[in-house]
Amino acid sequence: MRSVRQCSRTACGRAAVATLTYVYADSTAVLGPLAHHAEPHSYDLCVDHAERLTAPRGWEVVRLTPDFAPAAPSKDDLLALADAVREAGRGRAPAPAAAVAEPAADVLADQPRRGHLRVLRGEG
């Protein structure tokens, strides 16, 4: 299932539809369709921020697609969502019992306590 990535601009919570990357050697900003994977040196932008993008003086903006529109959910997305809901609705298996036996309560009753910890005297 495709995750919904948000716009990288501060205080913008809209869905991202475009990816912005920079080619510093050529003084170029490249704005293209949303990348399949989020990259650390790229920025995801919503429709409004992608359309209003400007570059610093002397830089060129290359737009790979003229208009950006949010992608509609595909059949695979809906099937993955249905599978996730079905899986969450199933009962979980009980946790296995602890393999280490607890000391008897009467042994702990006469031992001094420090907060939530107990001091156990060793034998010998």
Q: How would you characterize this protein structure?
A:
It is a single chain. The protein has 124 residues and is of the alpha+beta class. 20% of the residues lie in helices and 19% in strands. It has 3 helices and 6 strands. The strands form 2 sheets. A 4-stranded mixed β-sheet has the order 3-1-2-4. 11% of the residues are buried.
Name the helicity range.
Answer: 10-25%
Strand order of the largest sheet: 3-1-2-4
The parts where pLDDT drops under 50 for at least 5 residues are none
The profile of the biggest β sheet is: 4 strands, mixed
% residues in beta strands: 15-25%
The gyration radius over C-alpha positions equals 28 Å
Mean pLDDT: 78
Order of helices and strands: EEEHEHHEE
For the record, give the distance between the C-alpha atoms at the N and C termini, rounded to a whole number: 61 Å
Q: What structural class do helix, strand and pairing data support?
A: alpha+beta
State the total count of DSSP E strands: 6
What best-fitting shape do the alpha-carbon axes yield?
elongated
The number of helices is 3
